[in-house]
Every structure is written in structure tokens, then in C-alpha cells.
Design brief:
- Two copies of one chain form a homodimer.
- With 210 residues, chain A is mainly alpha-helical.
- Chain A has helices spanning 3-18, 25-32, 36-42, 46-66, 75-91, 93-96, 99-105, 107-133, 142-166, 174-188, 194-208.
- The longest helix of chain A has 27 residues, at 107-133.
- The two termini of chain A are 32 Å apart.
Chain lengths: 210, 210
């Protein structure tokens, strides 16, 4: 691994641990074991490192949201989808628990994040629409109801890890993640056909079993 | 209004506008029109001003969550409850969109916030339990289902204004707040008895009417 990649990896680790605003380039250079001059050879400033991290996040995120979503959407695949998205939120937690601060410092990043967010909410909408078209979701409020489900799913997903951190949980465990997946699932659960709902909830529990 | 109160008010305005992490004591003193020495006469550091703001937030918040919640809970009172809580989230938006950063800098504040959050989630739980006992909520998953409703309500409420800010909405309008109240209401809506649900949704719209 070259210095550029090591700088990116160190930044991710430090920001996840301490929060983005508490991590400056001197600290990143020292912890990576490179000189500040070498860091500035690769990145003009801290924001450029954050943008490189966002590149990775965006790439993985688009993959995670689009992978294995062919119809019909089976319960096991929906459970696996929830798990993949939570794993990603955990690995890039500095971003989701400090979004507004990061975007305020970098208008270019703000534009890119807003585009990704809009795309993600639209994807969630189309997944819920797919479940409805498969006959597994009864939606009393039509397209407006589906849009609301997609947005609430986004709000809970993007804030769950931050909520655990705010709550002062020192070490986040598997049970905390399962609780989050169940909270997320409870957004759509009351609209699902009962056996379909039960199968997804079972699959969520099974996925975490050793 | 004395200098102490003016310093608190200026800090709230600046932090709401720019984010807590971007606002230091020099800027606060300059915008208040007092000397740094005068600011330090009233507050030992920036964290002490934030704690004073949190005192005010906590006081108002406990009032807002407990006021007018006698049973039976009528639709108009539930709608008014949503409106009051959104107004508070708006006025203290720096806190809710930068919580983790603020708590990381001040362990005493972290403990106080965690206690307030636990209390709020328990209050939301008891409000939902009250609606169920009034016969207006059918809860297929019992106490566990109610707890999940309370937690999702908290997650959406505490993150809605931050979501609007992250989305780059330059000026937040009444329609953005109504949208948030409807998102929040959609957490509990699918469990409500239909005429009760319809009456609350109507009351939310009416409350905003000129």
C-alpha cells in the first residue's frame, strides 16, 4: 500500500474514532508515519482527503443499494440488503454523524452528497414500489405513502449509528446493530403482508446467528 | 437584557447559522458588542455558554413534552404537540444537527443530554401507550412495538431539521416543517384507528393554515 492509500486509511480510522472536526493534517501525518510535506504532496488539504474518502463511500454505497435487487424481492435478500447497508454506515460513521459540518466546509462535497442522497431516496422508493408490485406491500396512501416510507427509511438508516454514539455506548455490539435493523424494518413492516413481514424478521435474526 | 443574556442569545443565533464548531468566543464577544474580558467574566469558556443554552433547551423541552398530555389524547392536541416539538427543534437546531461533536467536547453535557434523551423516549412511549389505552391504536407487537414507535419518533424528530440543512435548503419554509411533521406522524399512523388517523392529519394541516 502506498502512502496515499495509507493516509486515506488513517484518516478514516481517526475520524471514525474522534469525529472529523477533531482530526487535522498534522495528526494524520504523524499517525500515518509520513512527514507533513509528504502528506501535502498527495493532498492539498484535509478536505481533499475527505473527498477521497467520499469517493470510496459513494462507490460502495451505489453498489450496495443496487446489488441483488432483481424482482421478486425475497425476504432473505431484503434482510441481506439491510445488513449490507448497516455495515457501510458503520465503516463510514464519521461521515453520517458529522454530515452537516463536513458539507459546510466544502460546497463541492455538499453538492455531491446531496446528489447521492437524492439518488438513494429514489432507490429506496423504487425498492418499496417493487415490493408493492410483487403483492407483498399494501399501501393505503399510494405513491405518497411509498415516498414517505423511503424518506423515513433514509432518516433512520443515516442516523442510527450516530444515535448509538450520542447515547454514549462505548463499544457498539452486534445487538446494537440488530436493534437498528429492526428499527429500520419497522418503518415498512406495518404495511407488509404478515407472512412476508415475519419471514424478513426471521431472516434478519438468522443473518446474525453464528 | 444584561450582557450575560445577550451573550447567550448571540451564541444561539451564530451557532444556528454557522454550526457550533465554527463559532468561537472572540466572534461571540464581537457580535454581542462586549469585550472578550467581559465575556470571560460571565463564562469561563465556550462550553459554559453551550451549557447555559442547554439549560434553556432542557427546560423548554420538558415543558413541551409534558404540557397538555392528559388523557384522552384528542387529535387536535396530538397535532399541537407535534407542532410545539418542531418549533423547539428549529429554535435549537445547532444542537440537534451537531450533537455528537458537542457531546464529545463536554462529558458533563453528554451525561445530561443522554438523561434527557432517555426521558424523552420514555415520555413518547407513554404517550403512545396512552393512545393505545384510549382504544385509538392497535399494536400488533405489544410493548415491544410501542417502544419501537417511540424510538423511531425520536430518531426522525431529532434529525429532521438537520436533514433539511444537509439537503441544502437555503431558507426553511413552513411547507418543509409540515413535511417533517407528516414524516413523523407516519411512524405511528399505520397503527392508528383510521378515523383517528384522519383527524390528526387534518389537524396538522389546519394548524398551519393562516
Amino acid at each position: 500500500m502506498g502512502n496515499r492509500e495509507r493516509i486515506i486509511e488513517t484518516t478514516l480510522r481517526l475520524m471514525n474514532e474522534l469525529g472529523a472536526e477533531a482530526v487535522g493534517t498534522n495528526r494524520i501525518a504523524a499517525e500515518t508515519g509520513v512527514s507533513p510535506g509528504n502528506l501535502y504532496y498527495h493532498f492539498g488539504n484535509r478536505e481533499e482527503i475527505v473527498r477521497a474518502l467520499f469517493d470510496a463511500l459513494e462507490h460502495e454505497f451505489r453498489d450496495v443499494l443496487q446489488r441483488d435487487t432483481e424482482r421478486p424481492l425475497a425476504p432473505q435478500r431484503i434482510a441481506a440488503f439491510y445488513l449490507r447497508t448497516f455495515d457501510l454506515a458503520w465503516r463510514y460513521r464519521f461521515f453520517f454523524s458529522g454530515t452537516l459540518g463536513l458539507l459546510r466546509r466544502d460546497p463541492v462535497l455538499a453538492g455531491r452528497y446531496q446528489a447521492l442522497q437524492s439518488w438513494a431516496i429514489a432507490e429506496l422508493d423504487s425498492i418499496a414500489t417493487g415490493i408493492a408490485e410483487d403483492g407483498n406491500l399494501a399501501h393505503p396512501r399510494g405513491a405518497e405513502g411509498i415516498a414517505s416510507l423511503a424518506l423515513n427509511t433514509w432518516l433512520i438508516w443515516s442516523n442510527w449509528i450516530g444515535f448509538l454514539q450520542i447515547s454514549g455506548i462505548a463499544e457498539i455490539r452486534r445487538a446494537d446493530m440488530t436493534a437498528g435493523i429492526n428499527q429500520l424494518f419497522d418503518v415498512i413492516a406495518p404495511y407488509l403482508v404478515p407472512p412476508f413481514e415475519a419471514a424478513i424478521r426471521r431472516a434478519i435474526t438468522d443473518e446474525w446467528a453464528p
